[in-house]
Amino acid sequence: MQHHEHCYSTASSRPIAYIALDDDAVRSRIRTILEHAGWTAIVEPTGFHLLRAIADIIEEGARPSLHPALIVIDAYARGCAGATIALGLRDLGITIPIVLALAPGQRTPIASGDRMLHVVDPGSVERVVSELTRSSFTATQEVSCGPASTPGSSSHAA
Q1: Cα(92)–Cα(94) distance, integer angstroms
Q2: 11 against 122, higher pLDDT
Q3: 60 confidence band (pLDDT: 50, 70, 90)
Q4: Which of 21, 153, 143 is nearest to 75 (CA)?
C-alpha cells in the first residue's frame, strides 16, 4: 500500500510544487529541498493522482486555488506517465515548469526545445529542483494558459 502524502499550505504567497516520484528516498529529498526553499510540496502517489489534482488548470477560465509553479514527476510514472502529462499541458498552452525524472537506464521520452521542461537523469533531479526553487522566474510565475510561447518545441514522445 502506497503512502499518500499531502502538504497543503494556507499561505497563498508560497509557490506550490506537485511531486509524483516512485522512489521514496528521492521523493523525500525533493520535498525537503522544496520546503526549505519556502515552497509548499504536494505529494501525489501516481501521475494519475497528480493529473486529477491539477485538473482545474485545464478548464478554461478556472482559477485553481492550488495551482502549481512546478511539477516534479517520473518520466515513466505509474498511472499516467510524466511525459504524457507534460505533452498534454504543453498542447493546451500551459507552461508550468516540469522536471521529468528518468530512472537508471531509461531513455529520454521527449525531444523538445522547451526551456521549462527538464528531462533529467536520477543523479540530477535534486540539483535541478534546487536550481529551479532558487529561480525568481519559477517562484513568481503565474500559470500561463495562453498559446505556448516556445516555437519549434516538439510535442512528440520518443
Answers
A1: 6
A2: 122
A3: low
A4: 21
DSSP 75: T
What would the mean pLDDT of 51-60 be, rounded to a whole number? 80
Could you give the 3-state DSSP secondary structure of residue 128?
Answer: helix
User: What is the DSSP code string of 3-48?
Assistant: -------S-TTS-EEEEE-S-HHHHHHHHHHHHHTTPEEEE-SSHH
- Cell numbers at 95, concatenated: 507552461
Strand partners, 70: 17
CB 82 within 8 A of CB 49: no
Residue bearing cell 497563498: 12
Would you say 68 and 17 are in contact if contact means Cβ atoms under 8 Å apart?
yes
Instruction: Say if CB 57 and CB 145 are below 8 A apart.
Output: yes
Smallest CA-to-CA distance from 69 within 24, 37, 111, 32 is with 37
Residues 100 and 109: beta-carbon distance below 8 Å: yes
